Amino acid sequence: MHVSNHVVDSSRYAKCVEVSKRVRWDIDKDVVRGRRFDFGKKFLPDGLSKVKELPFLTAGEQRFFSQIQGRTYANIFGLVERFIGAKILEVSREHWLGDQVALEALVRFTDEELKHQELFRRLEKLAGEGMPAGYQFLPQPNDVAQAVLGASTWAVLGLTLDIELFTQVHYRQSIDPDTDLSDLWKDVFLFHWKEESQHAVMDEMEWLRENGKLTPEQRDAAVDDLIGLVGAVDGILQAQSKADADYFLMTAGRSFTSDEAAAIHATFLRAYRWQYIVSGVQDARFNEVLGSMITPDQGERIAAALKPIFA
Predict the structure, then answer these.
(1) DSSP 179
(2) Cα 59 from Cα 142, distance rounded (Å)
(3) What is the 3-state secondary structure (H, E, C) of 8-38?
């Protein structure tokens, strides 16, 4: 067996524990506070929803377009946190009889992911109260988690870091500056961002630690696993974007030309690919960490797999 010589940096885990304690929040007391969604406002900012690419939509239709995407955005996070929590619980095993500070940091990480899943289940219920019937979230969290967790730990941790980093990018660059969003929806992602910030630090440490355990051959296979996971995510996005576009067309209250309907479908998919794949793989920190582990040939394989998604 190839044994890792990657040393655990206890001080970095300790910092994550300190931040976790300082920013910890409660769903009812701190976030929801008895509120409902304001359906007179957007959920997702234009930079994420891409709604401005559809100039034939009225202001009300643009708002509804963003609300559908916001509902799916919360559901997608609930979905990915199912497998993230399970994987972090699994990798924590390697610290059980080792660095107890690292173990506490990862146990807190898992606890926070379980809380986030509950928060997003609550959001789905609140969204359903104010939106027309017919919305469907197609992927099943447990089925997706089973499939993802079948890949190598290296690949799952890579996908996890990508997700945690784009969460922060979305909040800082798009959600926080937008004054036209529903206050409750915006607060959800403020509090989510506060806890995800230290999760990304731990993802990076665990990914590098896992990388140190692999032979070059194992790492090459893990790169293929990561490519496969990104392809699977894109498959989910293709199916959900179609379902959401169909729901929009069914409930918007008027008919659209065939060209307009096609543009609505294309924009949903382009927005989802941007939100859940492109914005993450373009993140400088993600590229820095990934680039430190892979060969130029492996980087080219990843770029070739991403090319159709970027297009």
Answers:
(1) T
(2) 37
(3) CCHHHHHHHHHHHHHHCCCHHHHHHCCCCCC
**Closest C-alpha to 109, from 133, 85, 127, 90:** 85
Cα–Cα distance for residue pair 115/210, rounded to 1 Å: 26
Q: Which structure tokens are listed for 198?
A: 């230290």
CA distances from 197 to 95, 144, 156, 193, 219 (A): 21, 24, 18, 6, 27
Q: What are the CA-CA distances from residue 244 to residues 250, 272, 309 (Å)?
A: 10, 11, 19
Distance from C-alpha of 292 to C-alpha of 80, rounded to nearest angstrom: 25
d(C-alpha 135, C-alpha 246), whole Å: 9
Q: Compute φ and ψ for 90, nearest 5 degrees.
A: -65, -50
Contact 104, 55 (CB under 8 A): no
The span from the CA of 269 to the CA of 244, in Å, is: 9
pLDDT in tens, 35-88: 999 999 999 999 999 999 999 999 999 999 999 999 999 999 999 999 999 999
Tokens of 277: 């794949």
Residue with tokens 């920190």: 285
pTM metric for this prediction: 0.94
Alpha helices in 135-283 (DSSP H): 141-149, 153-170, 183-211, 216-251, 258-273, 279-281
Q: What is the pLDDT of residues 293-306, one digit of tens each?
A: 999 999 999 999 99
181 beta partners: 42
> How far is it, in rounded angstroms, from Cα 245 to Cα 268?
6
The answer to whether the beta carbons of residues 4 and 154 sit under 8 Å apart is: no
How far is it, in rounded angstroms, from Cα 123 to Cα 139? Answer: 17
